[in-house]
Amino acid sequence: AWTRTTLACRNIDQIPGLANGWGVALKTSFRLFAAGTSWARVEGGVHYPSDVLFGAALGNFVAIFVHDAFLPADSNTRFNATIGRKEASFSVTFAF
What we know:
Layout: H1 2-13, H2 21-43, H3 49-70, E1 78-83, E2 88-93
Antiparallel strand pairs: 1-2
Helix pairs in contact: 1-2, 1-3, 2-3
């Protein structure tokens, strides 16, 4: 949960036009969902709190490392998604 949250927050930071309150609201909601997932694992008796904290730290580290290594801020990689009534498409564009 925390790896996906960190990657989503990093991607939101790179989207122009989301510097206003929408970007903050999205990143906050992603983090709240990840925290809720972590707490549910503790409440369910599946993990100890230390397991969840270590998993969150490890997930953040791996996500930041992978994101910065393969998708730097000046990257020409773009992800596009289009959703219509009768179709949906997803594309990845990049340059070497």
